[in-house]
């Protein structure tokens, strides 16, 4: 074959290859098959607890794939549940898990996703049943992760709500008391209680204030800030097959911690006439929260003492310029603390003063 003819055939073949490649590239690429390394890792901290007639499930969103790389295409979760009736005549009969929820991580209708956690509640539970749950994450390709850990709970009718919640204030603490009258069904149950607290402007959390259910109808919440308002609700809890079932909330009660013990009476009060009035001096109170002192005066012939300063005096001295230099007086002090509703001490000992003798 002549060389020129071979060259023409070669060029034509190469152009054909280029044209095919060009038009193939203009089309939309299909997604590549997902490798096993893209499978999300299993959820490992699934937990469940009953409250308000439902079961709450919570777990952490996985951030790594099975082989350790960072998750980049997590799409959502599926929740699976196994039901067993405790009244069934065949408790050992085989049963299958079935999907009860699908949660899109970007549009989690029926669930809440925040802070790297997913919170979902199952409201389709029935009394005297055993429920077992697990969840599976899935990626963009709907490839599921391995199963999470399993969690099991038992469910029955919750106890009734406590009543008559009252709060008594102490310094940096509040004492909460309540009443609970068990129903006929609850009399054979071991009833305990959970308390929930919130500050003004906040909402009650999902987890109780007490680390373990309280068996008495009294609880002291310490370490609080004096002068700050706190709100509480109480829920009864009963154990059913090892699951703590919590009932509805009591009415909300509020309280403000404040100091109850007033300061000690001031000491060392002295009073003398001098030019311009009666000069008073006294010792500093030992309590660090004393913010001032009130002065009470009684003139000769008067029956009662009356306060003569409009606001507590912060210094340890005072000049009573309104005193008549020709009249005898008795003075008393009260220390005042920094409580939201200031508390006064008892009276100090009296200090008496008489007019200066007139020079001849």
Pick out its properties.
single chain; mainly beta; disordered N terminus; Immunoglobulin-like; 1 helix; 22 strands; four-stranded antiparallel sheet; 3 domains; 360 residues; elongated
Short description:
The protein has 360 residues and is mainly beta.
Report on this model:
- With 360 residues, this protein is mainly beta.
- It has 3 domains: 37-155, Immunoglobulins (Immunoglobulin-like); 163-255, Immunoglobulin-like, CATH 2.60.40.10; 270-353, Immunoglobulin-like (Sandwich).
- The chain is 7% helix and 40% strand.
- It has 1 helix and 22 strands.
- The strands form 6 sheets. It has a 4-stranded antiparallel beta sheet, with no helix packed on it. A 4-stranded antiparallel beta sheet has the order 4-3-7-8, with no helix packed on it.
- The longest helix is centred in the first third of the chain and has 24 residues, at 3-26.
- The chain is elongated.
